[in-house]
Amino acid sequence: MTIHRITILGTGLIGASAGMALRAARFPGEIVGWDRHPSQVSLAMERGAVDTIAGDAIAAAVSSDLVLLSGPVFAIQDWMERLAPHLKPHQLVTDVGSVKVAIAARALPLFGGSGQAGFLPGHPMAGKEVSGAANADAQLFANAVWLFTEFTGHPLVAEWRTWVERFGCRTMDILAARHDEICAWVSHLPQFLSTALSAMLEDRFGDAPDLRAIGGRALREMTRLGASPYSMWRDIAHANEAEIADALLSMEQRLAYLRENLKTPELRDEFERANHFRTNR
Amino acid sequence: MTIHRITILGTGLIGASAGMALRAARFPGEIVGWDRHPSQVSLAMERGAVDTIAGDAIAAAVSSDLVLLSGPVFAIQDWMERLAPHLKPHQLVTDVGSVKVAIAARALPLFGGSGQAGFLPGHPMAGKEVSGAANADAQLFANAVWLFTEFTGHPLVAEWRTWVERFGCRTMDILAARHDEICAWVSHLPQFLSTALSAMLEDRFGDAPDLRAIGGRALREMTRLGASPYSMWRDIAHANEAEIADALLSMEQRLAYLRENLKTPELRDEFERANHFRTNR
Question: Cβ of A27: how many Cβ atoms within 10 Å?
């Protein structure tokens, strides 16, 4: 084992959960935490996600074997820029960002070259509609898939993947472009659908008590992600705009088709396709 | 207590669950069941939802104090037509149909008049994406709202409402038109969104293993209702078409607005409206 010290930059929901999962998996080394909100990293330490709070994020990264970047996509990119000049080839940086083409493009000049640290783009397909270390959970990644997109080889990659698997994850390799395409449809589109539905109901019904009383499980599920924070999704919307716009436009067209066929046999075919999609899950 | 015998016509998910909930609430009388699929009513009896299987649905209804009509909206309307000529003023018919204006309109010439049985339009806001007596559950209605729309008074209404409350339901009165409007937005729209999303993903990705592997909780939740049966939703689409088309068109416009603002500050406002909707739940 050669990963002795891990620094987590960004100890919100995902970063703190990773720290707690490392502890639950009996990681024997030191976990150092830093967050731009001091209260988040204090909470992460209280919850056992980190052993030490870093006063200086770059100094902590410099003295670590592995650095985990956790936060919105643009924050991750900023850290990549700031850290790269200080790190050495024996060190590995990995991230949990929701978009991978933009991350890999940013990494290209900064990592993996001669005299540069390594970089491993990663993305655990796990999360919650609530954020922060207060909602972190060592079991957040259990039964989820932790995706990796190829960058350059590094001696610590295999060891980090082993730790991730000990979180209860299945690891999977995928091309960055395919990652961003699929995530646009199975993660980003559901988010924006839920946001649009919630915002529309807010505008139309406000706090109408009968709406609140009548809505059941279907409404709760379909609007759950409406609680998700803009701070995270702004970056995803920017960084994966073309794929998300494509998915949204397709959804608009599909809803129009369904609306025009509420009384025709086409509705049956649409239900059958939907039934088939669910049956194969 | 004057309800001694109840006949349930349609012992699928909702009808069989009502029978099981009556038993769990210690209804002391007889529960007679009938279903157009003999296997459904046999299963309902095995599961304790009914005591007796009716050979002749009309004969069973004629000898009951209360008749519960459970099934797709058009099937309920058919039973209203067929039963009304045989029933007497001391008897009460109630239903669980998902649309109420069309049911109340059909009831108007058939029930509540001189020499006619009573009618109480009802709708429990509970269900599952799977159907049939096999999925019935005495707890299906726990913590749900069971809606009633006013029709004409009847001596058995108060007693039936008391049973419903013993299922763990809150009862609520609502005008039929308001019911159909709100249900279009909080129940029918979520269903058609989920169907459209599932069908679209089926067309675009089919059985692609990476899509299946990567999709997490968001995808599972947003497509859960994609498994719902066309047989039930066809009638709802017909009977509440104008309201549903209105809700779908609004959703299309909302998605277009969001798509056009993926990189503008309007996206923040949309997330804030959605956050507010969820915070107030």
Answer: 17
Residue A8: alpha-carbon gap to chain centroid = 15
Q: Is A127 on the interface with B (CB under 8 A)?
A: yes
Contacts (Cβ under 8 Å, ≥6 apart) of A162 = none
Q: What is the pTM of this model?
A: 0.90
Set of chain A residues whose Cβ sits within 8 Å of the Cβ of B219: 186-187, 190
Beta-carbon separation of B258 and A170 below 8 A: no
Q: Chain B, 204-233: which have a CB under 8 Å from a chain A CB?
A: 204-205, 207, 210-230, 233
CB contact under 8 A, A192 and B275: no
Instruction: List Cα–Cα distances, B34 to B29, B50, B55, in angstroms.
Output: 17, 9, 8
Say if residues B210 and A181 touch (Cβ distance below 8 Å): no
Mutate to test the interface with A, among B201, B231, B253, B272 (most CBs of A within 10 A): B201
Residue B121 contacts residue B94 (beta carbons within 8 Å): yes
- Give B203-221 as a DSSP string: HHHTT-HHHHHH--HHHHH
- Both tokens of residue A109? 């000049």
A36 within 8 A of A15, measured Cβ to Cβ = no
pLDDT at A102: 97
Question: What span, in angstroms and rounded, lies between the C-alpha atoms of B259 and A245?
Answer: 6
Residue B143, class by beta-carbon neighbours within 10 Å (0-12 exposed, 13-18 middle, 19+ buried)? Answer: exposed
Amino acid at A132: G
Residue-wise pLDDT tens digits, B222-269:
999 999 999 999 999 999 999 999 999 999 999 999 999 999 999 999
- pLDDT, tens only, B106-115: 999 999 999 9
> With an 8 Å Cβ cutoff, are A216 and B277 in contact?
no
Reduce the DSSP state of residue A142 to 3 states and report it. coil
Strand partners, B112: none
Length of chain A: 281
